[in-house]
Amino acid sequence: MPVPDDAFGLEVHSISKTYGATRALRDVSFNVHRGSLHALVGENGSGKSTLVKILAGVVKSDEGPGSIVVEGVDTPANGLTPDLARSRNLHFVHQDPGMFSDMTVADNLFLSSVFPTTRLGHISRRRQNRAAADVLERFNLTTMRPTDLLGGLSSGRRTMLAIARALKDQADLEHGVLVLDEPTAALPEREARLLLSHLRTFAEQGQTILYVTHRLDEVLNGADSFTAFRDGKHVTTATTRGLSKSELITHIIGRALTDISRDRAPIAGAAPRVLEVEELHTDRHYGISFSVRSGEVVGIAGILGSGRTSLLRTLFGGGGVLSGRVRVGGRPADIATPAAAMSSGFGYVPEDRGGDAVFPDMTVRFNLTAATLKDFFRGLSLRRSEEVSESVRIIDAFRIKTQSSEQAISSLSGGNQQKVIIGRWLRSAPKVLILDEPTQGVDVGARADIYELVGGAATKGMAILVASSDFEELELLCDRVLILRQGQLVKTLVGDQISVPRMTELAHASRPSSVVTPTTTEV
Asked: What's the N-to-C CA distance of the chain in angstroms?
């Protein structure tokens, strides 16, 4: 049944939320058309998740005139409870959907329901599996079986199952509001596209869908409309028709993404070569030769398994070297261990920030100064006040969002944790800074700040080597891009040659190029 163009599925009126001195939401109002796919965007801490929790009735909004209207039915926002939200046809899939890998599909579907029982009061597996099969068929999930263990399903299929569980008690999909908090955050690109395709089908049947995402392409290519938040305030609600990525970024962070793209002409030949790698052979790489000049950003592009990360780890003392030469500042570099690599002039921001870079139980201050703690000692005495002062300076300079330098780093968003790690290395002023997936899993505001930090370090003469699976990122940042395939450097792109289509074509070729990579850097 067609939905009128002017019909609203969800109306949010004057919602505010205060935590002590922090105003998480400030008089937020917006409307979402019925039967539409609506994205909720903003930096971490902008208020998106707080709004979702208020809609779900698990967090109370501030006292006042705030209200939630679902398909014309008005409810005071402060009076919402989980049961009342459900009765108003508000359904939720949270970031942690509360599903269990060691339980079956049927068990997970009916986890929050009354299980069908036999006359003796035992759970009737036959009736439960039959009911589960009906739900799976209704939501076109027939590739799953009720008896399948959840642990054997892909991330995308688990998310679809969580959606089916949220909507299974609704009589039809022509009514109601489905709210999803970052449903694609952990999904590969293909599964994310498939999930959005399913959501589009639900919307076409009349379901109003509100979803939180940091993936800008999902907003531009998947959503009908969007609402942007910034610092707890509603910025705009608008259609995505004709919206550009740069306009969307400006709505989210309040400024244009700083144009830090590197000049496409090669760095002047007079600039000294800071890093030189010659005929490096490891157990995964074959005759790798390249260099990075002072003030240059050199990217490494390659698909999963190409050897990007292992090459960067090798340079930072990860071992595996069979033969070859590495020089930093014209001198032989010792890369036998991470400590030796640091002494030779390397800094390294690894791909696995949480596992390899962050000290999660320590403060922001400690994480900022860990690589240079000796600078604050006078004899055997640690000058704590100097360390705190320097930490505060970096926090301000790098726009790290934290209550203080003494806050636990584990309480910061991923983007702010990454800025702390980059700040740690920039303070130590390495000759060569190695970055592996520097903006993976961070929001667009933190991404912009990280790009500025990288560009600023290069401008001051630092040599920077960056690997990224985001080819748009490499196109923006790099003076040159090295294409790595099956452990070999097969091509170097310079200036206007650096483009997403060209990098994609070269990185995905079936076998390494027959062209021998020269031992000089300028290819």
From this structure: 61
CA pair distance 435, 464, nearest whole angstrom: 8
- Where does residue 231 fall: left (phi above 0), alpha (psi -120 to 50 degrees), or beta otherwise? left
Spatial contact of 340 and 334, defined as CB atoms under 8 Å apart: yes
pLDDT per position as a tens digit, 278-330 = 999 999 899 999 999 999 999 999 988 899 999 999 999 998 899 999 999 99
Closest-CA residue to 439 (of 460, 421, 457): 421
pLDDT at 1: 45
Q: Compute the distance between CA of residue 280 and CA of residue 290 in angstroms, rounded to an integer.
A: 10
Q: What is the 3-state secondary structure (H, E, C) of 471-492?
A: HHHHHHHCCEEEEEECCEEEEE
What is the Cα–Cα distance from 433 to 415, expressed in whole angstroms?
A: 18
* Contacts of residue 99, Cβ cutoff 8 Å, sequence gap at least 6: 108, 111, 150, 158, 161, 162
Distance CA 238, CA 224 (A): 9
Single-letter amino acid code for the residue at 375? D
Model confidence pLDDT, tens digit, residues 468-513: 988 888 998 999 999 999 999 999 999 889 998 899 989 887 655 4
- How many Å apart are CA 449 and CA 453, to the nearest integer? 6
